[in-house]
């Protein structure tokens, strides 16, 4: 790594997730459901690198050169340094790499190629592994960065690309709901940087557009005084993000009420409902409870606990959450609020988006040194979930 400079990308969201550009000789696996936009994003990246750094070899093993060309036209790509090769045999691909010595190679997808030297069945796990190993060897030898596309779901239900995770340097996962425009690119593994960063894109007519103000976008469709809606401030890597947490509590038709978590950990939801029952006295035992993070983001930080619990309480009690309040805090088993990191940065983002009050753990305000809190937002320290609900929920009259 010390020998070679990284190749910087103008697509800032991609740069962020990679940890600051492409590392020569490094191998990046880009996973995601079919149709999510992997080829689109990589074609855009390929065009940018071809134009500003050097020739790019785009190996299309799934689509014809004609299909790739149509996508390129749609994306407005006009460069003569992007070479598209329709090839499925890895030995052929390697020959092209060695004779061309491109700045970057993209193989779309790793499942669609085979090695004539390998005696296992095409498409099998060992074929995928052998092909990747052969490509990586050549990439390292000539310091050519390689991006492999792999169709893999979040659960890793397709065995193929999962076996590649330990071989490659970086694993990026492109997520989003297919019929919604937002796409989230997160790094699952990164030998060259942090794994917490996310890149946010919007699938548009002209390809994947970077979203520069994600908090604004995630809150765009919010109904401010709806019951069951609360705003959390999550840290995704180095960036604070405001997200809407929606909850619905409704009388269950079953003896065993249902719990559904979309975008938060299921066990976290169980814990928070238990705390609401036992420590706040809400009888949720006959309620079906659904929780959803709007926009398709996965929030795995306990800092979102307060917003999740408040959203559930809001729906259960039929009181809206005050529209100007952002909520930050982890909830402990006694119903106490526990402090979270990077509070000033979170509150700054909330203030920037027009929130005038923030409910935070009181303990976070009493820390030694007392981090300076941003201007323009009233920071209210609370000790327990019960206290937080008293402030956050708007009772009629
Ligand atoms: P694609 O990149 O082919 O997905 P993947 O490689 O992950 O399978 O893109 C999938 C969808 O994106 C496809 O249904 C068409 C749509 N799309 C756009 O909306 N805008 C565009 O500019 C392009 C190229 C594709
Ligand atoms: Mg594709």
Question: What's this entry about, in short?
Answer:
The chain is an alpha/beta fold and 397 residues long.
Blueprint (SSEs and pairs):
Layout: H1 12-18, E1 27-32, H2 38-52, E2 56-60, H3 65-74, E3 82-85, H4 90-100, E4 104-108, H5 125-142, E5 146-151, H6 159-162, E6 170-175, E7 182-190, E8 198-204, E9 207-210, H7 214-219, E10 229-236, E11 239-251, E12 259-262, H8 266-280, E13 287-293, H9 305-317, E14 325-327, E15 330-331, E16 337-338, H10 343-352, E17 357-361, H11 362-365, E18 378-382, H12 385-392
Parallel strand pairs: 1-5, 1-6, 2-3, 2-4, 4-5, 12-13, 14-17, 17-18
Antiparallel strand pairs: 6-7, 7-8, 8-9, 10-11, 11-13, 15-16
Helix pairs in contact: 4-5, 8-9, 9-12
The structure holds thymidine-5'-diphosphate and magnesium ion (MG).
Would you give an account of this structure?
This protein has 397 residues and is of the alpha/beta class. It is 30% helix and 25% strand. The chain has twelve helices and 18 strands. A hairpin with a 7-residue loop joins strand 7 and strand 8. Helix 4 runs parallel beside helix 5 (125-142). The mean pLDDT is 91. It binds thymidine-5'-diphosphate (TYD) and magnesium ion.
Largest sheet features: 9 strands, mixed
Coarse structural class: alpha/beta
Any low-confidence stretches, pLDDT <50, length ≥5? none
Oligomer: single chain
The chain-level mean pLDDT equals 91
The N- to C-terminal Cα distance equals: 64 Å
Q: Give, in spatial order, the strands making up the sheet with the most strands.
A: 3-2-4-5-1-6-7-8-9
Number of strands: 18
The count of helical stretches stands at: 12
Amount of beta strand: 25-35%
Shape: elongated
């Amino acid at each position: 790594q010390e020998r070679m400079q990284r190749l910087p990308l103008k697509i800032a969201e991609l740069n962020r997730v990679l940890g600051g550009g492409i590392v020569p000789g490094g191998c990046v696996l880009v996973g995601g459901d079919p149709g999510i936009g992997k080829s689109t994003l990589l074609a855009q990246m390929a065009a940018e690198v071809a134009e500003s750094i050097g020739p790019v070899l785009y190996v299309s093993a799934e689509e014809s050169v004609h299909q790739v060309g149509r996508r390129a036209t749609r994306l407005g790509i006009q460069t003569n340094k992007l070479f598209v090769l329709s090839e499925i045999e890895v030995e052929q691909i390697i020959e092209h790499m060695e004779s061309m010595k491109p700045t970057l190679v993209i193989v779309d997808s790793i499942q669609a190629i085979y090695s004539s030297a390998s005696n296992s069945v095409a498409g099998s796990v060992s074929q995928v592994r052998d092909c990747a190993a052969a490509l990586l060897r050549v990439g390292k030898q000539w310091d050519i960065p390689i991006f492999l596309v792999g169709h893999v779901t979040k659960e890793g239900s397709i065995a193929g690309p999962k076996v590649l995770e330990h071989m490659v340097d970086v694993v990026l996962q492109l997520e989003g709901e297919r019929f919604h425009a937002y796409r989230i690119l997160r790094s699952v593994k990164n030998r060259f940087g942090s794994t917490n960063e996310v890149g946010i894109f919007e699938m548009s007519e002209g390809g994947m557009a970077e979203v520069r103000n994600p908090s604004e976008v995630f809150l765009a469709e919010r109904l401010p005084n709806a019951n069951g809606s609360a705003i959390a401030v999550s840290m995704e890597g180095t960036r604070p993000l405001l997200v809407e947490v929606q909850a619905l509590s409704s009388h269950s038709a079953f003896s065993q009420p249902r719990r559904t978590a979309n975008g938060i950990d299921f066990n976290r939801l169980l814990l928070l409902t238990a705390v609401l029952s036992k420590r706040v006295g809400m009888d949720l035992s006959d309620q079906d409870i659904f929780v959803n993070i709007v926009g398709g983001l996965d929030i795995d930080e306990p800092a979102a606990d307060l917003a999740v619990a408040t959203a559930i309480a809001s729906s259960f009690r039929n009181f809206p959450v005050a529209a100007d309040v952002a909520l930050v805090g982890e909830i402990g088993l006694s119903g106490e609020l526990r402090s979270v990191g990077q509070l000033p940065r979170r509150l700054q983002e909330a203030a920037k988006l027009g929130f005038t009050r923030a409910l935070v753990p009181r303990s976070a305000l009493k820390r030694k040194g007392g981090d300076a809190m941003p201007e323009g937002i009233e920071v209210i320290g609370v000790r327990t979930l019960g206290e937080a609900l008293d402030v956050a929920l708007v009772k009629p009259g």
